Automatic annotation (TrEMBL):
Belongs to the aldehyde dehydrogenase family. The keyword Oxidoreductase applies. Keywords: Oxidoreductase. CDD domains: ALDH_F5_SSADH_GabD. Residues 12-472 form the Aldehyde dehydrogenase domain. This is Succinate-semialdehyde dehydrogenase/glutarate-semialdehyde dehydrogenase. It comes from Chelatococcus asaccharovorans. The keyword Oxidoreductase applies. One of its GO terms (biological process) is gamma-aminobutyric acid catabolic process. GO terms for molecular function: succinate-semialdehyde dehydrogenase (NAD+) activity. InterPro entries: Ald_DH/histidinol_DH, Ald_DH_C, Ald_DH_N, Aldehyde_DH_dom, Aldehyde_DH_Superfamily.
Length: 477
């Protein structure tokens, strides 16, 4: 058993009223730790500390900030195994994925250590004689960062790293199911020399935390990764609190289009490991499989073969390739989606049931001939389920792919350059992978369109939401 405490003004502490909440291992359903539940008093202190930290941190040079971010990246890599074990213990994903997540977070810190040094303004040629005009980039102010449980370290780092590089202070609220990753990030930064108050960590009752801190006058920017309904609620709160800036990375329901000329074996080989990574609990995960009827039977057969090779179990165990879902709530939700699809005509080709009686395990599942009326045809699945939907024409499939209110990522498999270009142009999505599933990386912007949110994380674009442009027009005296 371990305690995850609050970080306020550089000090780790229990909540002011001493309340705790359990942390459960989804593979065993056993309590492995507990986290502090922040009170209103704690949140007020965190906001005040963030304001003081911002005034100090914004005056540091970009080189000083860069050195601290790089130092933190080194510390994460040095402790990748231990941090990865904490992620697996709380989230359930297999240990190899957790260690890879730690290294990805370290790469993100390195990337923004350099982007902060390249946050250039510009000189504007004078409009009149004896004038000097320029645009300077300045930090927006203290940031509230709200991160999810599926990628607890990477999603936190994608917010914290660019904010710190820009000169902002941050209050980070990790998901209560997986708080240890945020602690590891904070410890790495503090050990690297981050001043007190520049980064705070709070946990507790999510609705109460977001409501109070969004309304806090010290907070100038909010970044949230999570569901569409919660994103809409937070956006309304931010508007009411003074039109505070928002970055929203919300849901996805990614279409995968298998054209009639696709290399079916290659597509399945690439899709299986990505689809079932983190047990399918990834917003950019391939989610709706549109397969040309000319190759659908062969594609489904290959999927069933690939799924049969997966080994379900505790993410800490050797040889396991698929861990549990992160919560009982997700387990029940996925089960309901599969039952609904089958009741509306889908053919169950593999899986479809809870695995065992202990742990939140759900069998890797393949459904064929899924009806448009099935709930999972329109609702994000967030689980180890592949629904296959046949089609016959370009117009039919592009219409179905774009029918979703979400538009985060999309994937196309074809040997035709013409079709690749048509799909890339016409799909309503923030990211498109053609014959690849690699759309999320440190160097590229990550974000969607429509109800998948606005603003982007990653790449050179990722630092912009944490800066404001100030135009200065100066006449010589």
């Amino acid at each position: 058993m371990y305690d995850v405490k609050l970080l306020i003004d550089g000090a780790w502490s229990a909540s002011s009223d001493g309340q705790w909440s359990p942390i459960v291992n989804p593979a065993t359903e056993e309590q492995v730790g507990r986290h502090a539940i922040a009170t209103s008093e704690d949140l007020s202190r965190a906001a005040e500390a963030a304001e003081r930290g911002f005034r100090l941190w914004r005056r540091k040079t970009s080189l000083e900030r860069s050195a601290i971010l790089r130092g933190a990246a080194t510390r994460l890599r040095e402790n990748a195994r231990a941090i990865g074990e904490d992620i697996t213990r709380e989230n359930g994903k297999i240990i190899g994925e957790s260690i890879a997540e730690v290294n990805w977070a370290a790469d993100t810190l390195d990337w923004y250590a350099e982007e902060g040094r390249r946050a250039y303004g510009r000189i504007i040629p004078e409009k009149m004689p004896d004038m000097h005009q320029y645009v300077a980039k300045e930090p927006v102010g203290p940031v509230l960062a709200l991160s999810p449980w599926n990628w607890p370290l990477v999603t936190s780092t994608r917010k914290v790293a660019p904010a710190l590089a820009a000169g902002c202070s941050v209050i980070l609220k990790p998901a209560e199911e997986t708080p240890s990753a945020a602690v590891a990030l904070a410890k790495a930064l503090l050990d690297a020399g981050l001043p007190s108050g520049v980064l705070g960590i709070v946990m507790g009752i999510p609705g109460e935390i977001s409501r109070q801190l969004i309304a806090a006058p010290q907070i100038r920017k909010v970044s949230f990764t999570g569901s569409v309904p919660v994103g809409k609620l937070l956006a309304a709160q931010a508007a009411e609190a003074g039109l505070k800036r928002m970055t929203l990375e919300l849901g996805g329901h990614a279409p995968v289009i298998i054209w009639d000329d696709a290399d079916v074996d290659d597509a399945v080989k690439k899709l299986i490991p990505v689809k079932f990574r983190t047990s399918g609990q990834v917003c950019s995960s391939p989610s709706r499989f549109f397969v040309h009827n000319a190759v659908r039977e062969r594609f489904v057969a290959r999927l069933v073969e690939g799924v049969a090779a997966l080994r379900l179990g505790n993410g800490m165990d050797d040889g396991v390739t698929l861990g549990p879902l992160t919560s009982e709530r997700r387990l029940n939700a996925v089960g309901r989606l599969v039952e609904d699809a089958v009741s509306k005509g889908a053919k169950l080709c593999a899986g479809g049931q809870r695995h065992g009686t202990v742990g939140y395990f759900f069998e890797p599942t393949v459904l064929d001939s899924v009806s448009d009326a099935a709930t999972l045809a329109t609702e994000e699945i967030f689980g180890p389920v592949i629904p296959v939907i046949g089609f016959d024409s370009y117009e039919e499939v592009i219409g179905k792919a774009n029918a979703s209110t979400l538009g985060l990522s999309a994937y196309v498999f074809t040997r035709s350059l013409e079709m690749a270009n048509r799909f890339s142009r016409d799909i309503e999505s923030g990211m498109v992978g053609v014959n690849t599933l690699l759309v999320s990386m440190v160097e590229a912007p990550f974000g969607g369109v429509k109800e998948s949110g606005y603003g982007q994380e990653g790449g050179i674009e990722g630092i912009d939401p944490y800066m404001v442009n100030k135009f200065v027009s100066q006449a010589f005296a």
